[in-house]
Write a structure and sequence with these properties.
Elements (H helix, E strand, L loop, with lengths): L1 H10 L27 E3 L8 H21 L28 E3 L3 H11 L18 E3 L5 E3 L1 H29 L12 H16 L22 H7 L3 H12 L3 H14 L2 H12 L11 H32 L9 H28 L12 H27 L8 H21 L5 H19 L3 H9 L2 H27 L16
Antiparallel strand pairs: 1-2, 3-4
Length: 506
């Protein structure tokens, strides 16, 4: 009490005019949830209690039951380990309420583990036969089987990884022009992919009609336990049920994990970080070491801040456009798009492989085969990198909630592979075709194996201390690997990188 009295006396020292309250820069701190509480308010601080944690577990359990009862796809439980499809959005107070819930990625993972304990939740299944590719549960609703769901998901990942690679290569080509203000090529794809990720994460309208309609039994007076839970959900919980249900749709996973993850590239970002240090970025002049250090900081700060800003701008745009955003038709997704995506994805991947073997611009001079060096090898390697990242996230991201091991592992391994491919491409060893293959490994395999959009989404949802540790360790380890791998060739006895023998731009 003495301390509080002293503070009151200190406050009375200054006879501040009432108009001083109108200063916006002193009104509300930028970090409202400075203690990162599960609940917080801009007005009075809520009292801590054990019942709060219990209510959070119960609410999440209700949402989980509701999602499982409504979901049309039999999604494996491991799909929840994809951090880009987690229920924690970058904007946790879209309606700007004075009191709202703050959730971190660690908090959600802890609740998931507690709810998933044996005996706490079991999926109800029956042996009632259903049509091919579907199964029937006790409520009589036809659901997509787990095998079909996984097939659709893999197909979308293959297709959207190739589209994301083309978008990345095309945007890099469009932003390379004389006098460009940003001279490292990875910035624009990382910004654009993070922007789309933010929009998809916060959007509540695009996939609304993809939620399966209620069954005819819903009109009966009696209700099942899940229906009772759905009826008792408050508006905030209903929004979270919709968000969780949306992220069980294979098309959404394909867009978030496949397209956005392949559009952005962590390995290209770290490569540009090293090239800024070695003064090998395009349009750079000789400089001393101090300027190179400033260049490293410029690439690092520009990429991280631009990508994080894009994530929040995309989320804010989704909130602003909610009244105008259309909804994709449910029957079109469920009956047409899912089934058509399977043959299209594998046929397009096979076509990319065949174009690598039989390029359309083949001539007697291999250096004129620009299509193969620029895109086709990258398209052939892209699905491999995307699928490895997908399954690594499923297996590793749940191991340590405060440090996503799956994303970290693929980002670091992809960066190391890119460094080795870069070295091999810049020494006169493999000739033109070998250089084109290595370029495809860098742009396709490493570009899709590593991701910035998921990385910044994790940084935005982790607790502040863990986010700094995770982000700092990722950049430090990746940059250290490239200094060891590429630095030996750049600063060795050979005198630097040799000129590429292949043509890798259209």
């Amino acid at each position: 009490m003495a301390q509080i009295t002293g503070i009151d006396n200190l406050q009375e020292e200054y006879d501040a005019p009432e108009s001083y309250r109108n200063l916006d820069d002193a009104a509300v701190p930028p970090l409202h949830g400075v203690e990162e509480e599960a609940h917080w308010a801009t007005a009075p601080v809520l009292q801590r209690s054990q019942s709060r944690a219990a209510s959070q577990r119960e609410a999440r359990n209700v949402r989980r039951h509701s999602t499982r009862s409504q979901a049309d796809y039999d999604v494996p439980d491991t799909y929840t380990n994809l951090n880009e499809v987690t229920e924690v959005p970058p904007v946790q107070n879209p309606d700007e309420e004075p009191i709202h819930r703050y959730e971190s990625l660690e908090h959600v993972r802890a609740l998931d583990r507690e709810i998933s304990q044996p005996g706490r939740f079991r999926r109800r299944e029956s042996v009632v036969p259903g049509p091919p590719g579907a199964k029937r549960e006790e409520d009589g609703k036809a659901r997509v089987s787990r095998l079909a769901t996984q097939t659709y998901t893999v197909s979308y990942l293959i297709l959207f990884s190739m589209l994301g690679t083309l978008a990345r290569l095309g945007l890099q080509a469009l932003t390379a022009y004389p006098g460009m203000p940003v001279i490292f090529p990875s910035i624009w794809p990382n910004f654009a992919g993070s922007f789309i990720m933010g929009f998809l994460t916060e959007d509540r309208m695009l996939f609304r009609s993809a939620i399966p309609p209620a069954s005819p039994q819903d009109n009966t007076p009696s209700r099942s336990g899940d229906e009772e839970r759905n009826a008792n959900l408050d508006p905030e919980a209903a929004k979270k049920v919709h968000a969780a249900l949306k992220k069980t749709i294979p098309l959404y996973i394909g867009l978030a994990t496949g397209f956005c993850g392949s559009f952005t590239s962590f390995s290209s970002f770290i490569r540009d970080l090293f090239l800024s240090l070695s003064n090998d970025l395009p349009l750079t002049a000789p400089r001393n070491g101090g300027y190179s250090l400033a260049a490293v900081l410029a690439v690092l700060l520009t990429t991280v801040t631009a990508s994080l800003s894009a994530l929040f701008i995309g989320a804010h745009l989704a909130i602003a456009l909610e009244p105008f955003t259309p909804s994709l038709p449910y029957l079109f997704i469920r009956k047409v798009l899912d089934r058509v995506a399977v043959p299209i994805a594998f046929c397009v991947w096979l076509a990319a492989v065949l174009l690598c073997i039989f390029p359309p611009d083949r001539s007697s001079d291999p250096t004129q085969e620009s299509w193969r060096g620029a895109a086709t090898f990258a398209l052939a390697f892209a699905p491999l990198g995307c699928l490895i990242r997908f399954y690594a996230s499923l297996r590793l991201n749940s191991r340590l909630a405060s440090f996503p091991l799956g994303t970290f592992a693929v980002n670091i391994s992809g960066t190391a592979i890119l460094g080795m491919a870069w070295d091999l491409a810049h020494v006169p060893l493999g000739g033109v075709v070998g250089c084109q293959v290595l370029q495809g490994v860098e742009d396709g395999f490493c570009g899709c194996l590593t991701t910035v959009s998921t990385w910044v989404a994790e940084l935005a949802t982790l607790r502040r201390r863990n986010a700094y540790i995770y982000g700092g360790v990722s950049v430090t380890v990746g940059f250290g690997l490239l200094v060891a791998i590429m630095g030996g060739l750049r600063w060795g006895s050979e005198g630097g990188f040799a000129t590429l023998e292949c043509i890798h731009s259209l």
